[in-house]
Amino acid sequence: MAKEFDRLDERLREFIRAQAMFFVASAPSEGGRVNLSPKGYQDTFAILDDHTVAYLDLFGSGSETIAHVRENGRITVMFCSFTRNSRILRLFGTGRIVRPDDPEFLDLRTHFGVDHPGMRAVVVIDVERIADACGYSVPYYELVGERPVLDTHHARQPDEKFAHRIAGDNSHSIDGLPALEPDHPLPSGIPRPDRG
């Protein structure tokens, strides 16, 4: 049955580190659409302390989570085991967006694996509730490997493309909430992997 935890102890940290992906849920304060996003790349999630986590936010097709967190801070992260030992772990909390032009961004980057092309922010979450569930109905899946498509795609994009995304499909949520602004710094301000 479900259990609540008062902190991210070592056993919970081991479970989180073992997961190849996580899910992020957010919603506007009133009306609008609930957003649920799958996140890959294991090295994009970090545990900062017993009650604080963060993840590296990469450019995608929209910016719902950023818009919702900017508006009300509410965010939930879910980890789900697809192996023999079933388990679901949810971290409920209040998030904040740290942009690449924020001095804190450079320090936060040290908590993640590699510099992924297309980094647009770090989402830092103050965790207020930690709870697990059985996950008995979650099917078994075997991990084949990480999908490199997003990194490969971003590495090929010119800076002008990112600027267009900031002013275009990443500027507002689908419900019209502000997300990224046109003056949002370009990824060129961050060391990027060789585009080779």
From TrEMBL:
Residues 8-132 form the Pyridoxamine 5'-phosphate oxidase N-terminal domain. Pfam families: PNPOx_N (PF01243). Residues 169-196 are annotated as: Disordered. InterPro entries: Pyridox_Oxase_N (IPR011576), Split_barrel_FMN-bd (IPR012349). This is Pyridoxamine 5'-phosphate oxidase N-terminal domain-containing protein. It comes from Nocardia macrotermitis. The lineage of its organism: Bacteria, Bacillati, Actinomycetota, Actinomycetes, Mycobacteriales.
